[in-house]
Design goal:
The protein is α+β, with helices and mostly antiparallel strands. The chain has one domain. The protein has a six-stranded mixed beta sheet with strand order 3-2-1-6-5-4, with helices on both faces. The longest helix has 10 residues. The protein starts with 6 loop residues before the first helix and ends with a helix.
């Protein structure tokens, strides 16, 4: 697996490698911010993940996931905060993302 110093560096490289869709967590699924298409935990795979810890600000703690849909139609990234700033998620989403922590 590759190594990145910053979240921005990771996102830039992943985009160059074809992970162009921007996903957001929406409790029980992830959602493409451009098209509104939703993927539930069984609809996608996490192929890479990178964790970043803020040296001085806990708000900088995040994980970036490189994701592709099972049907092969979408590749993108999901940035998720962890700790006290993490998003509310369903149990299935927590399980899906926790495997890669």
């Amino acid at each position: 697996m590759l190594s990145y110093d910053t979240l921005t560096e990771a996102l830039t490289d992943l985009k160059k490698r074809g992970f162009t869709t921007d996903f957001n967590i929406s409790f029980e699924h992830i959602k493409c911010s451009d098209t509104g298409k939703q993927l539930y935990p069984q609809d996608f795979e996490i192929v890479e993940h990178y964790r970043f810890e803020g040296n001085t600000d806990p708000g900088d703690e995040s994980v970036v996931y490189a994701i592709h849909s099972i049907d092969g139609s979408m590749k993108g990234t999901l940035v998720s905060a962890y700790g006290m700033y993490s998003e509310a998620m369903s149990e299935d989403m927590i399980k899906k993302l926790a495997v890669h922590e």
